[in-house]
Amino acid sequence: MLQHGESMFNVSGQIGGDANLSTRGQAYARMLPELVKQSAGEGRNLTVWTSTLKRTIQTARHLTFEKLEWKALDELDSGVCDGLTYEEIEEKYPEDFRARDNDKYNYRYLGGESYRDVVIRLEPIIMELERAENVLIVTHQAILRCIYAYFMNIPQERSPWMEVPLHTLIKLTPKAYGTHEERLKADIPAVSTFRAKGSSAKHQEADSPGLGPMDEKKPVGEAK
Ligand code: F6P
To answer: Ligand 1 in contact with 78 (CB < 6 A)?
Structure first.
């Protein structure tokens, strides 16, 4: 599973919306078939699940597998804050901004959703995933966190603060003793969309590409 490639909103630091991929996000989409081949192995037949938003559909564009769009995989609905930066949210809705930091799992955006709401709407997805094999999910930060927490057996209350970087494929394999995780990072930089508690700073450039502690494979360069 993976997040969509870097979007124009990721670059400007805006949340939500239905933005197109940035140039770097498009480059990531172009190299995704190669990255997937490295992770899943040559000739493996996968089914690709995307959300209904452009940034996930554009990310999966060059994959030749069967594709399915799920509304339930759309990003957490940020309601009245959709399209704002964290800085603007802190300015316009200071109490909400603090309330979200204090209880990010339960905080529901005005006119939008909480992580708890997302976990409920993901139930059918999780049920399908329990049955299915060889599924490649292309989705969004909050959604990925909740799916990841479920399969890694991490309490959902912790999911809102977990790091699921852009341009990184996370392969989860169920084993008898638990779920095995492998992260494969593409050699294409992207901003970090992780926001630390209390911060309203604009998205920063993520660390330079390379292998993280959980990685076992080499990063892949952009396909020519
Ligand atoms: O910034 C990218 C993004 O996917 C936003 O669209 C979304 O609101 C946010 O991440 C979710 O992350 P957090 O819950 O940490 O704000």
So the answer is: yes
CA dist 83 → 10, 16, 19, 79, 172 (Å): 11, 6, 10, 9, 32
Predicted structure pTM score: 0.91
DSSP 17: S
Cα of 15 from ligand 1 centre, angstroms: 6
Backbone angles phi, psi at 206, to 5 degrees: -70, 165
CA pair distance 176, 57, nearest whole angstrom: 33
Tens of pLDDT, residue by residue over 87-138, are 999 999 999 999 999 999 999 999 999 999 999 999 999 999 999 989 999 9
| Phi, psi (deg, nearest 5) at residue 96 | -65, -40
For 106, the token pair is 């339960």
Q: Does residue 14 line the site of ligand 1, with CB under 6 A? A: no
In the block, tokens 């940020």 appear at 78
CA of 160 to the centre of ligand 1 (A): 9
Q: What distance in Å separates the CA atoms of residue 2 and residue 136, rounded to the nearest whole number?
A: 8
Instruction: From 35, 26, 6, 27, select the one nearest 169 (Cα to Cα).
Output: 35
User: Using CA positions, which residue lies closest to atom 16 of ligand 1?
Assistant: 195
Backbone angles phi, psi at 210, to 5 degrees: 165, -175
The Å distance, Cα 142 to ligand 1 centre, comes to 6
Task: Give residue 82 CA to ligand 1 midpoint distance, Å.
Answer: 10
Instruction: Give the amino acid at 14.
Output: Q
